[in-house]
Amino acid sequence: MGGLTFIGLGGSNPTPFNTPFELSEKKIGEYIGTLLSRLKGRIILLSHAPPRNTTDKLPHGHVGSEALARYLGRFDLIVCGHIHEARGMVRVNGTHIVNPGMASRGQGAIITIDENIKIEFIDA
After folding, report:
1. Degrees (nearest 5) of the Cα angle 81, 5, 106?
2. What's the pLDDT tens digit per position in 57-81?
3. Contacting residues for 38 by C-beta, under 8 A, at least 6 apart
4. Rounded distance between C-alpha atoms, residue 23 and residue 29, angstroms
5. What percentage of the chain's residues is helix, strand, coil (to nearest 5)?
6. What is the CA radius of gyration of the chain?
């Protein structure tokens, strides 16, 4: 769409809560590696889980995916959720990582992509 390629990854990396759709870090890395091997240009990843050490901080530490973190720099933008308490935006190795927050609280983000990526957080 408009020179952008959107790909998605559901589920999450392993958690202590044994949630219904967890993927091993190895599987996450394999899926993302396979997708990226077929793509060029500007790539947007819609992922339930965030990359580790980005928008993944809980009171007891960072809990995001290590496999996703290894691919930072290969995406223009990652939009993720999973960690409800970690709303925000960071940029690592040229990749913007956005957690728009909790929709149940009226939180969201408007993301505009042209030559640049602009993020505006909203609260309804």
Report:
1. 30
2. 888 888 899 999 999 999 999 999 8
3. none
4. 10
5. 15, 40, 45
6. 14
Q: What is the pTM of this model?
A: 0.93
Q: Could you tell me if 55 and 98 are in contact, meaning their C-beta atoms sit under 8 angstroms apart?
A: yes
Number of Cβ within a 10 Å radius of residue 28? 24
Answer whether 95's CB lies under 8 Å from 76's CB. Answer: yes
Where do the H-state alpha helices sit in the chain? 25-37, 66-70
Residue 16 token pair: 């202590």
Q: 17: how many CB neighbours lie within 10 A of its CB?
A: 8
Note whether 86 and 99 are within 8 A (CB): yes
Q: pLDDT tens digit string along 32-60?
A: 999 999 998 999 999 999 999 999 988 88
